[in-house]
Amino acid sequence: GPNRLPEPAPRGPWVRLAGQFRNVLVQVLIVAGVVTAALGHPVDAAVILAVLAINAVVGMVQEGRAEQAMAGLRNLLAPRATVLRDGRRRTVAGADLVPGDLVLLEPGDLVPADLRLVSAQALSLQEAVLTGESVPVDKDPAPVAAAAPLGDRQGMLWSGTRVMQGTGRGLVTATGSATELGRIGGLVAAVEPLTTPLVRRMDRFAALLARAILLVSALILAWGLYRGQSFDDLFLAVVGLAVAAIPEGLPAVMTIALAVGAQAMARRHAIVRRLPAIEAVGAVQVICTDKTGTLTLNDMAVAAGTTPAGDFGVAPDGAVAGGGDLGPLARAAALCNDAELHDGPDGPRVEGDPLEGALLAFARQAAPGAGQGWTRRATVPFDSRSRRMEVLVQSPEGRLLRLVKGAPEAVLPLAPGAAAWLDRARALAARGLRVLALAEAEAPEGAPGPWRVLGLVGLMDPPRSEAVAAVAQVRAAGIAVKMITGDHALTAQAIAAAAGLARPDRVLTGAELDTMSDDDLARAVLDTDVFARTAPEHKMRLIAALQGHGLSVAMTGDGVNDAPALKAADVGIAMGRRGSEAAKDASDLVLADDNFASLAAAVREGRRVADNLRKVIVFTLATSMGEALTLAVALVFGLSLPVTAVQILWINLVTEVTLGLALAFDPPGRGAMTRPPRPPGAPVLTRGLVWHAGLVSLLFLALVFGLYAEALARGLTVPAARTLALNALALLEILHLLFIRNLNGDPPDGPIRAAPVVWGMIGAVLAAQAAITWAPPLQAVFGTAALGWVDLGRLAVAGAAFLAVLAAERAVRHRLLG
Ligand code: ATP
């Protein structure tokens, strides 16, 4: 079977349905339904219970879809493993491993199954998931005593643990639940609940509001009884008031807005791992990005280089010209290398690091057959601190050679004459090339010889065109973009300029950062956009310096050493392809295609979700309060109700929730990426919005009452006047919806050409209103009556007045409150 741990059982439909009844409003309605039936109003009781049932089923289905969407996202992040099959290196899904597979491990890898170590170079693992011990453990293939406890079996690697350093190969001995992790009952992490700090805050607020409303309703009931109204009449009206005022749809609609956002991000290759990231990514003020693969294509090719005999160039078709005898350089490039080239129908494909793949392709061209027959005896793997890789190789005749390749500063000082070579390296770097130096030394057993520099190669890695556009886009959105790279300062500058960063010429290197105090760094960090020759720990200092200015920082990373920085950032972003499992695990967001453009898309979606959440909140609170106020005024002053209790139920559960849902799907506003980010800690509801919500409630009260009173004065029957008031409520909600879409003064796609889903929802509400107004069966149940043209004309006038007041109010509000 597949190499997978059992998954926690998903919540079944019945569990989700039962969950719907935890809602205070639902409980109140059940009680109300029962009391109404007991009071002898079977039709009203049936309506209440039917509305309840519909509401619960809709909630259950929506939650199920949202949960499914999130589970789907998790599947996109399934781990992969590198194996040797038929003697060739390939990448497979972790679930496809079987006992007997030979797995290759690098720093940052998650051990995909239990493995017997076959070979290891400086390998150490973090086994905290199994042993709780957070200090990395060294591993070695040597046998241990048969009775050694788990933690002492150094020749074994356990599924779920993490490679911190070194490389190794291991043979799969157990998969799935047969692994040690499976045996202690390890589970795949459960689906995260669909919630964020904002949603939780609103949930708590809604629950509090519900209690307050129940209290007020009880007081109004008592007041009515005191004035001598019959309990029978009052009870249903007060229930209607409570239903109107409680924003029951709010938590569900907010959850859906988040799920919609997460799915839209996934379509744009940004996969959310922690939901609060959806809001946070829309609010970032600084993005610190990697260079290779994110801003560039990570599609490397050797473009130029030097040997002791002179410079060489490489034509686009790969032909090499100049440089004298390229044999030794090509041999080192081919042997000090962990990648493989697999010949496929559309040319050779790299399995492994693209940089090493480019070196293999170069070696093939420069000196075909270079390094053939040589075998590797030992390896010191590349790591981002030493910036070099070294191997010991042996020829078929038994000659031993040490080969090293790496950053020029890390390799050239090994041999005499470094200064002249470093100058040549700088010249290559200034062309935007990533430069590697290669050197070799004879290594007869016992007496290693001196190092000889074999040459330099400059690799070209062109910027991604869509990343250039995306950098411009996020900069227009008021976000600073900083590049953090392990490359040489000159290479970094050239790429920064090509990518369109603000100040490509000002560079700070890792060595300079090391000599700066935190205060110096705090001053320099705002004006510097390029950080070169950095090690992962520099990322931590940069985040601290930026966050010290109160900025919200997004940081990308791929290596195992980037994990702390990804955790410390406000939004940690890991690379889906190039990134290690360790980086993904520490991140909030994963870019499936490693592309900066996907990050820009995520920012846009994040802003959309945050805007839509605010729209949903303002819309729901304003309309709920408007309806409640209308009923409360009637009740307190003992007037006849402009809408009955069952009618208000209809408005709430059919109209308001449907329209709120439309907002959850609203596309991003046109200005979403030209506005500066919202300052961190800004309240969700600004003073302006609270005032707006208050005004809308008052307009609801005035217009609904006005229409109702005028209708009665015109001699309409009470049912007809109520039907007019009912339709006025629905109309005002629709108009308010259209108005609130324009929250930031930028309608998503023009005021009229709204998103199809918005018009779909509005159409559905209009159809439902037509049905309740003119369909005899619904008339019988809800006590409505048909309206005439005169009434519809009155509705149109009321709607126009509503919009006119709101437009005037917006103009004034923007002038006064900004
Ligand atoms: P970027 O954000 O541009 O990817 P990085 O921090 O990931 O930068 P590293 O991969 O750590 O950069 O590389 C730093 C330097 O180490 C490179 O400039 C190069 O000189 C050298 N280097 C990179 N990969 C290898 C390798 N496989 N073998 C030897 N040296 C390497």
Would you give an account of this structure?
With 818 residues, the protein is an alpha+beta fold. It has 27 helices and 25 strands. An 8-stranded mixed beta sheet has the order 8-25-24-23-9-20-22-21, sandwiched between helices. An 8-stranded antiparallel beta sheet has the order 12-11-10-19-18-17-16-15. A hairpin with a 2-residue loop joins strand 1 (80-85) and strand 2. It is elongated. The mean pLDDT is 87. It binds adenosine-5'-triphosphate. Adenosine-5'-triphosphate binds next to helix 11, strand 16, strand 17 and strand 18.
Quick overview of this protein structure:
This protein has 818 residues and is α+β, with helices and mostly antiparallel strands.
Strand order of the largest sheet: 8-25-24-23-9-20-22-21
Gross geometry? elongated
Small-molecule binders: adenosine-5'-triphosphate
Number of H/I helices: 27
Percent of residues in helices comes to 40-55%
Number of E-state strands? 25
**Structural class of the helix and strand makeup?**
alpha+beta
**Largest pleated sheet:** 8 strands, mixed
Instruction: Give the end-to-end Cα distance, rounded to a whole number of Å.
Output: 62 Å
How much of the sequence lies in strands comes to 15-25%
Radius of gyration: 34 Å
